[in-house]
Amino acid sequence: MNKNNKEQTLMTVTGQIKATSKGYGFLRVSASERHFIAPPDMEKLLHGDTVEAKLMDNNGSTIAKPVRLVASNRHNLTGIIRRHKRSNFIEFCRSPSRRWMEIDTSAHHTFLEEGDYVTVDVSIHPWDDPSHQGSAQLLDVLCKASNPRHPWRMVAEEFNVLPTHTLQSAEFERAKEILNRELREREDLTATPFVSIDSATTVDIDDLIHVEAIENGWNVSVAIADVSAFFGEDHYVNSIYQEHGQSIYLPKLVSPMICREYTEAFLSLNEGADRLAAVVSYSLDHQGRIVGEQSYKRAVVRNHCKLSYGEVEHCITKHATTEGIPSSVSEHILTLRDAANASKSFRLTRSVPSDYSDIFFEIDTEGAVVDIKRSDRLSSHEIVEEFMTSTNELVAAFLHANDVKSYFTSFTGFNKSMVGRLPSRVTQQFTNSDILGNNGYYNVMFSLKDKPALQKEVSDLCGGSEITPTPLGHAARGVKAYCSFTSPIRKYRDMKAHQQLCALIEGRVPSAVTRTEADNMDYRLKQLSHAKRNLMKHLFVSFAESNIGQVKSGLLTFSIHKDKTDMLFYLVDPDMHITITDGLDTLSDVVVYEGIYNKLPIEITHINRREMKVYGKVVPKDLAA
User: Whole-prediction pTM value?
Assistant: First the structure.
């Protein structure tokens, strides 16, 4: 039977093209419906095109065959100039396929250089070109490749990093009235000695914590800035902040979701200021389990002491009071530590531990990267993360119990299609039923706790979490529902959860998040995450370029794929690695296999800026096992 006999037309649909870097694509018909498009059919399409396609049944699988181009976004497309055989091409930035298209040669653009960031109009679409190549007309050069600001300009344009919305003076006057009224009418918890723990430079304080030791454990209260008091569900800024997604914090590129002046005046839980908050209270027993009833209320709170991570760490590790911090606060810090440790110990019986340490780029005034460092993981960070995670879980469970559709963070773990692609170390240790069971993801990741490279490989295989209007469970956290609630000044999905929680507190029916809104938020968060990784990669390659011939020390892992071995030297992060091309014979005395790290000195030898890759060699005399 030939191929044509295997395929049967099911129906005709219209949808938008989503390209991939693998050559194939998808036809997105709706938020919940998409169909595979084979690589040959993708050659004549651009990412974002709207097409009419026939759905074909191919041996039980549904594939889409585009038959008509309905619409295409041909104007003001951005990309990078690529030079090949004296011709100029554009590599489209917003297309995951990263396809090239030749720029019309009738105009002699001799001033263009490899890497310039430009805008074009598509003059001949690949659909209308027998060769399926198409061509483009140059509109403008947004930024020259030689400009130190090039990475920032490109990322800001490519990923739609929006400027902060400016609130008018009328909004400030309205906020003053709301604050004064609510300070009079709300329950007063200003006597409760809440404290904040943030970086020393933080200016938008979202959360306060208070923990009291009791006979059977601890009473915990977490106060979160009540942004919903000022921006209710019907306020016009919802659509603006929804489009932002969240505040942007990139190296030398910061764009707060809510303007700083407003945050400082009304929202941030500043030391000594009486502010509005949503307060979540619960109890822990000595084993770290949440027991009894939880309470949710809107109240007036006061930050009794603004603490930095460093000050808290000093108190914990040195068992000493930091100058300027009252002894009562130092005692409170130790109580926070004890409760957080107990809570974490119990959480790790069902939850995969996470590493939230940040990477810092030291950048000079000209935009050049001086150094790249990974921040230390401190006990003080874990204290805050533990209480925020518990609060997020409680709020998510509360919203779900009340049938509220929100921006839930869902992660389903493994499915049947993933099992065959898992590393052999996993499949040899676990049966398919174990892997696909209720605790399969936790069990697999726990077995790899000392193998961070393998953990990352397995985690990447699962594709990460997604935003859904109803919770699908979170396999990594071991809970049925999870949402983000504790950063409403910086994240719109947290602001929405606040609005919904406060509606329930006051006996109102919260507005629901639709499937489309959840999909759009999921897309925006992935877009911003990709923007961060893209900028970091640009900065890393620039740093490597200025350090060719220098020796850097870091971590090495071997990733084995069939008969090919990729040797990647991690400088500070798996996304910033050096591919080793020489000196591998010196590794004979080092025990290396999947997932084992070894500290090695590597000399940076060269870079490929087009492919954003860095190469190096092992320095034999300094080999360190």
Answer: 0.82
pLDDT digits (tens, 9 = 90+) for 309-368: 999 999 998 776 677 788 899 999 999 999 999 999 999 998 887 765 678 888 888 778
What are the distances in angstroms from CA 78 to CA 61, 74, 126, 509?
Answer: 35, 11, 17, 44
Distance, CA of 99 to CA of 104 (rounded, Å): 16
Per-position DSSP letters for 46-70, written without gaps between them: -TT-EEEEEEEEETTEEEEEEEEEE
309 and 229 belong to one structural domain: yes
Domain boundary among 91, 115, 147: 147
Residues 399, 505: contact at Cβ < 8 Å? no
Residue 435, CB-side half-sphere exposure with 13 Å CA sphere: 21
Q: What are the beta bridge partners of residue 71? A: 50
Domain count, the chain: 4
Among 205-209, 421-425, 598-602, name the most confident range.
205-209
Q: Mark whether 248 and 381 lie in a shared domain.
A: yes
Q: Are residues 67 and 82 in the same domain?
A: no
Q: Say how far apart CA 11 and CA 585 lie, in whole Å.
A: 58
Closest CA to 65 of 47, 51, 76, 50: 51
Sign, Cα dihedral of 248, 254, 257, 260: positive
| Per-residue pLDDT at 625 exceeds 60 | no
- Residue 428 one-letter amino acid: Q
Residue 161 resides in a domain: no
Mean pLDDT along residues 488-501: 97
pLDDT tens, residue by residue, 538-570: 888 888 988 999 888 776 665 544 344 556 676
Specify the DSSP class assigned to residue 163: P
479 in a domain, yes or no? yes
Taking alpha carbons only, the member of 175, 326, 348, 368 closest to residue 258 is: 175
Answer whether 25's CB lies under 8 Å from 18's CB.
yes
**C-alpha angle 417-419-422 in degrees, rounded to nearest 5:** 125
Pairing of strands 77-84, 613-618: unpaired
| Residue 174 is assigned to a structural domain of this protein | yes
Give dist(CA 602, CA 557) in Å, integer. Answer: 13
Do 407 and 308 belong to one domain?
Answer: yes
Cα dihedral 434, 438, 442, 443 sign:
negative
**CB-hemisphere CA count at 13 Å for 115?**
15
Residue 249 sits at the vertex; the CA angle it makes with 248 and 253, to the nearest 5 degrees, is 90
Two tokens, residue 33: 């419906």
Are 614 and 578 spatial neighbours (Cβ–Cβ below 8 Å)? yes
Task: Give the pair of three-digit tokens for residue 486.
Answer: 């504790």
Determine, yes or no, domain membership for 34: yes
Per-residue buried b or exposed e for 238-273, using 16+ beta carbons within 10 Å of the residue's own CB: beebbebbbbbebbebeebbbeeebbeebbbbbeee
Distances (CA, A) of 546 to 172, 607, 616: 48, 10, 14
What residues does 290 pair with on adjacent strands?
Answer: 284
What is the token pair recorded at 258?
């809510």
User: Are 376 and 524 found together in one domain?
Assistant: yes
Looking at the predicted structure, is the pLDDT value of residue 624 above 50? no
E strand intervals along 378-514: 408-410, 466-468
What is the domain extent for residue 40? 3-71
Which residue type does 268 have? S
Please say whether the beta carbons of 172 and 265 come within 8 A: yes
Buried b (16+ CB within 10 A) or exposed e, 367-402: bebeebeeeeebebbbbbebbbbbbbbbbbbbbbee
Q: What is the CA radius of gyration of the chain?
A: 27
Residue count of the chain, please give it: 625
